Amino acid sequence: xxxxxxxxxxxxxxxxxxxxxxxxxxxxxxxxxxxxxxxxxxxxxxxxxxxxxxxxxxxxxxxxxxxxxxxxxxxxxxxxxxxxxxxxxxxxxxxxxxxxxxxxxxxxxxxxxxxxxxxxxxxxxxxxxxxxxxxxxxxxxxxxxxxxxxxxxxxxxxxxxxxxxxxxxxxxxxxxxxxxxxxxxxxxxxxxxxxxxxxxxxxxxxxxxxxxxxxxxxxxxxxxxxxxxxxxxxxxxxxxxxxxxxxxxxxxxxxxxxxxxxxxxxxxxxxxxxxxxxxxxxxxxxxxxxxxxxxxxxxxxxxxxxxxxxxxxxxxxxxxxxxxxxxxxxxxxxxxxxxxxxxxxxxxxxxxxxxxxxxxxxxxxxxxxxxxxxxxxxxxxxxxxxxxxxxxxxxxxxxxxxxxxxxxxxxxxxxxxxxxxxxxxxxxxxxxxxxxxxxxxxxxxxxxxxxxxxxxxxxxxxxxxxxxxxxxxxxxxxxxxxxxxxxx
Length: 488
Hints:
By secondary structure, this protein is α/β, with parallel strands linked by helices. The chain contains 16 helices and 24 strands. The protein has three domains: 94 residues, Udp-n-acetylmuramoylalanyl-d-glutamate--2,6- Diaminopimelate Ligase, Chain: A, domain 1, CATH 3.40.1390.10; 225 residues, UDP-N-acetylmuramoyl-L-alanine:D-glutamate ligase (3-Layer(aba) Sandwich); 153 residues, Mur ligase, C-terminal domain (Protein-Tyrosine Phosphatase, Chain A, Alpha-Beta Complex), CATH 3.90.190.20. It is globular and about 75 Å long.
């Protein structure tokens, strides 16, 4: 494809060579450069790809997009200068893959918690309505039940090249609707620029990623960007920034959902059980009785978000009400995991204060069961939430077992001590077992048939990250393989 065609809509200067050069591929990682490639020198907090431009040329790159001069570039290499290579990459990637989002119903879901569950609900409802759907998100990028061929590299929202390539693959496979988890970091760093979102969904805003954004205001403003990029909005009316979103959004139309405030999609008469939650959905003057298979008030919010997104996407409310009652939980999201001892065990991805409080509050609603929680906090991530999560666990659980999560480059005991400072604010019992496997087994050892064990923080993840290695580790598999008799 001609570079000049890839640069449509971008202000640029040709340092050397010609923009009429034909390139066969695009890369921003010098290790993935192919012959006749365009290499984009993207800068991040930790890596400046300008430093790898010569390596990219050695690997076959014939053109560069840069923000600054790179010394030593051969005269036969085309060099294009732009103001911001991240912004440019989003536009170039869209053009290279034929701007597939313009031919899809792309539903972007943002918020601190609930993105994965809402994406799952949306995709499943649309599939049950005989539409072919895809998901781009935390757990995997999928078409139906199958993973996409484009390699998934980023944990949640892909970089612009991976995103546009995945959307192209989905469009070519006959997909009509795509649910995309859109993180604040993706919005802040232009990964989803040039993606035509038809529907934007907002779940909630609570403290997270402050290590990346610096403060809650910047974090909030990153989230708000989605509602200047989508045609329609589906917004949580009960969230504290609902009014601010309504004031700043440029959507053609916005639908609201909620429990506590009046909303277009409103839930009332919530009734909780160990196997789910019942509520009445109010929409356009009608009431619909719904029984979800996942417990907790947060599950109702996720369901309302999914209901709104699918209605805006053209599904009838009658079909939505019928199908949503058949959908189970997504892997690692309030997932019941069975074991030989028979102890009720919940595995969940909750890794924020609000997420942990939601899960433990939902379990508390089961009745007088004793609640044992096993959790830690990730290393090299927002440290401010650690004592807050400790305080929440101490307030809502009967016993807390503090352990390691993904420590990364940090000392696991240092992380645990910061959580411990919060749990000490309560009078609750707790133990410290750094080895996550032993912590999980300890909880199952001491739990009886009437207790509930909650294992929080890693959910669907099948690995544990240390400074020098990544090891296989799956909370759910450990629970399933737990044998009480062999530990007596």
